[in-house]
Amino acid sequence: xxxxxxxxxxxxxxxxxxxxxxxxxxxxxxxxxxxxxxxxxxxxxxxxxxxxxxxxxxxxxxxxxxxxxxxxxxxxxxxxxxxxxxxxxxxxxxxxxxxxxxxxxxxxxxxxxxxxxxxxxxxxxxxxxxxxxxxxxxxxxxxxxxxxxxxxxxxxxxxxxxxxxxxxxxxxxxxxxxxxxxxxxxxxxxxxxxxxxxxxxxxxxxxxxxxxxxxxxxxxx
Length: 221
Known about the structure:
The protein is mainly beta. It is built from no helices and 18 strands. The strands form 5 sheets. Strands 8, 10, 11, 13, 15, 16 and 17 form a 7-stranded antiparallel beta sheet that branches. A 5-stranded mixed beta sheet has the order 12-9-1-18-14, with no helix packed on it. Strands 2-7 form a two-stranded antiparallel ribbon. Strand 10 and strand 11 (123-127) form a beta hairpin. The two termini are 56 Å apart. Keywords: Signal. It comes from Altererythrobacter arenosus.
């Protein structure tokens, strides 16, 4: 008996919270010396330390010093304003397009796979699944941050896609166009593409509109 079920599948990328880059701010010591028969006033020193004053002679020596305490580590992902230990250029990811396999049809047992080529963007079907047209779209994302910084991007290799009616499939072999050492350009930007292979089985028998999310995390390396 011939059986056919319509299927559409798309996976949206979920950008997780950006990470702030911490940088240490060195401190110093302040000291003041007073000399003479009258009152000597020492200068003010700024830094992480104390101000000390010494008087030589018949007068009193007064030294003034201002010590600036360490404001602490950068709080991630939302640092308080004015913390000098934070680089105020966060790294962030914006998803520009989601993966979309277009329109498909399950035939026979419906067990098959659809490859969405990372280089060409073409989709190729295998097994009990055929192409019904529609645009196949690769995922695309933009990373922004500090210029010429090396970053790290993490994403899963497999996610589950589901339809509210109960159908399920897996998006496996998720790959991207990122190099082994992703680097933001002179404008602090990096664009990359990502895609995967859709696998259907008996759990996809009802067809439907499959949806899934790909969590992506980006941070300075």
